[in-house]
Structures are given as C-alpha cells and as structure tokens.
Predict the 3D structure of the following.
Amino acid sequence: MSVELWSDDRLNRKQEGQWLVQFLTSKYAILEAEHSKNYVLNVNAEWGFGKTYFINNLAEELKEKKHVVVCFDAWKNDFSENALLSFIAEINEELTNQGLLSATDGKLAGIARSMKNAALPLLGGFFTKQLFGMSLQGVEALLEDEQESEGASVKGAEQPGLSKDITTVASSISTKAAELALKEYQTTKNAIGHFRENLRLLVEGLEGSASFKAPLFILIDELDRCKPSYSIQLLETIKHLFNVEGVYFIVATASEQLSHSINAVYGEKFESKRYLNRFFDQEYSLKSPDKEKYCNFIWSKYLPNETVFVPVFQADNKSEDIINIGILSKVAEYMRAGLRDIEQAVKLLYAIQLTQEKTDYLFSLPLFYIIVLKIRHPEIYPYFKNKWGRISSIKHTVVNLLSFNKITLI
C-alpha cells in the first residue's frame, strides 16, 4: 500500500494499535454467544497524546485486513448544524472511495447502493428549521403569499381589521408548519428504519464477500474538540441510528474534556460520566508517552544544529543537546505538558534561534521553563513575565525559579 504504517512512530503506538486490531477482530469472530455484535469502544487519551496519529494508522491496519473502514473527523464537520447530516454524507463518500459501490460482487455493490439511496431522505432539506430560520424578507414574502391565497387585502396600517388579518395569517402559517414538521418527522423515522435495515444487509454482505470482511468499522476522531451540542448529537446518532449488529465504533476522545463539554450543556451537577457510559461499551486508555523520547525526536527535527541554548550545568560524557533535551522533558513532565505543547515550545525555540546572534547565548533552563509556562498556563504567564523583568541576574533568576516553584530539575 502507498501509506507506510506507523512511520515516525515516536510514542510506541504500533504495538498498541496491532494489539487492538487483534482484539477487535477476534472479539467479533467469537461473539455468537453474546446478545449483540455491535460494539462502541472509547479510545481515551489526553490532548496531545497522539490520538489522531493512532486512529489514522489503526484505520490502515484494519483496511489491510480487508475491513471496510469509515473515518470521520468530528471537529472538521462540526460547522454543520446537524450531526446526522454530515455523518451520513461522510459514510456515503467513504463507501464510494473504498470501492463498495463498484465491488466485483454485484450483490454487495447493490446493497451498498441501496444503503446510499436509503440515506437520501435523511440528507434532504430540514424544512421546519429552514422555515423558522429564514430571513425577515422571506417571512414577509410568505405572509404576502398567504394573504393573497386567503383573499386578504392589507393596504395600510390604518386599514380596519389589520390586526385580525395578521393573526389569521400567522395562525395559518403555524398550522401548516406544524403539519409539515409532523410529516417530516414521519418521513425521517421511516428513512432511519430503512437505512438501518440496509446497513444490516451490508454487514451480512461483507460476511459473505471474498473482497471484504465484517465487521464494518467506523472511527471517529476529535469529538472532544467539537461544540458540546454537536458532540451530543453525534453520540445520540451513534446510539440510535447505528445500533446495528456488525458495526464497530472506535471513538477517540479526551474523556475528561468530553465530560466537561456535556456539563456545559446540561449543567455542572449533571452526571456526565454516567451519561457517556450509555454510549461506550468499553474504554481503552492509550499509554502515557515517553516525553523524553518525544523531546529528542522533536528537537532533532527543528534544532539539529542548535548552538545558542546553554545548559546551566554540565554532565560527563553528555553533549549540550542531550542535556537540553533532558531539561526540556523534565520541565514538560512537571508542567504536565502534552505532545502538542512540547512541539509548540520547540517551535518557539526554533524561532528564537533564527533571530539570535550566534555569539549571544541563552541559558536553557529558565528559558524552557518560561516558554512551557506560557503555553500551559497563559493566565499565570503575565505575572511571571513581570517578575522576570525585574531580575537582572541570570543566576538570581534561576534561583528564584527553583525556589518559587519548589521544583528540582537537576
């Protein structure tokens, strides 16, 4: 295949990914004794722990084993006001991209096309939302049409019976809107049933196919970064629309952050973790990455020939680069910085190096500390910056840094 699996794996995720693939495929193979073959797994890790890298490579592992895999980036799609709309559209596109609609197995291709057609009513215009979300000019035009059809003749604000006419028109429009809403609800309900049945048939087709294997995997990333309302909609969609045997969901989240998002909608006292347990059958937490190995990788990428950052101490048989990488990893560990935080810090160091005179040197420990502080705790940084500005001696700065925060880095 064109994509090399687990290339640049600096967090030892390959072993975890391959183990998880083995677990999921084996689980499906022996599930006859259980009540259902549908499954939702939450892959939990903090922000910056490499969830997206893990999910992308996991998808490729599954595709290599002939599974149909739908990848959905929730954050890229949360501009949509309707989670179901964007989700169904993405599934249709993935089925096309992976060749199901043109499969050599004519029966399987027919089922895939039937499922796509079954989704069309769900992708139609949501009339009720459009009606109440239209512009003022649109409402006025609708009023005028309604008045003409009812024989109303409104020519001026002084005309007798104006208030009565407007009330009648508004009532008529509301009645028609309610009728259309009920009709749309029934249409959507029928379409959902039809879609689920075709999804079930698709999984059955995969089980009997020579080109593909069951289960069907749907991988969702970046859910915790979405608007809270969109995250909840998407979870509800998974629960109610895709609760079909042979469909496996893998949802990558920072579970703690997702809980906070749900509380933002339902209130601080809402038991968000119990709410999430309704959707997830199990949770798998990615191992915490080795920050020093990652610091070494990202330092080598941006600062391979660094010369301006000087450690505040020396160590036998260790280069300045190795010492600086160790200092950065210790600062990151103490600050609980994620991998994205570390990368941002190194990019800032790279910018400093580009603009720094080669004859001017900067002590790495205080500089690394204040950069990571700025990234991790921007609310504290201004106070620290002011304190920094009043201290002229680098020696005094280091002493104050260490004593003020009670941190031992050396």
User: Anything to note?
Assistant: The chain is about 60% helix and 10% strand. The beta strands are 39-44, 67-73, 213-221, 247-253, 282-285, 309-310, 362-363. Residues 162 and 291 are 73 Å apart (CA to CA).
